[in-house]
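Researcher: Go.
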Amino acid sequence: MSRDFLTTIARERKERLDREAVHVPTAELRSRAEARLGDGRPFAAALRRPAGEPLRVIAEAKQASPSAGTLKRDYDPAAIAAEYERLGANAVSVLTEPLRFHGSIEHLARVRDSVSLPVLLKDFVVHERQLYEARAHGADAALLIVSLLSRPQLCDYAALAREIGLEILVEIHDRSEIDAALGLDGAIGVNNRNLRTLALRRNHASTILPLIPADRVRIAESGYSTREEMRELERVGADGVLIGETLLRAESVEAAFAALFDAAPKRAPGS
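Model: Structure:
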């Protein structure tokens, strides 16, 4: 594999999408996505944290990752998501990339049917087809990665998402990407993991989040495992945190939630 993971996985996703389009045309996915207009669940609103309240939580369902290997051999994303909701998560992220994360869009559909929370498509979006497919299967929001897409692509995909009723989480990795993210409507996530090398930069998000205007929903992503880190994110103004591997590796998800947040996190009004 190339040393540049992001370039490699983008190529793999494009190749697979080309093969899938032979069996299910993009136009068909668009029709199915448009048929779901009006049934979206508010994503950013569920993650907005009023001053003095605990972090909001996007809890992630994924079976594996390139950096951690297999996380759950008996993987039931719907059951995992239902447990997250019971414990007080505010949204669920579903990893749908098939080759390296062992995900699928069907996992997302099953999660959407099992919870009342907003559901985020977590994938490497490189084609409009993925946005149609996400909405057709019930996603309420989709991840767009700034370092993966050109400015025109970001703008086009953000506009398309809005058109079909998807919110977006715009992911950045460095301060140089802030302006591109601010040019789009949606929550902004800062990933501690360098997606080109897969190296994890501890607390990197804490240096970037304060640079993002407070009127945007600000999310910290990747590598969090302690209550002290949650307090630091609250201190720097994060609205929420995306947590995956720490919960998925835990013998007790309930105990892991308690350790991270002292108690089940509070829900946003109306979520």
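Model: The radius of gyration is 17 Å.
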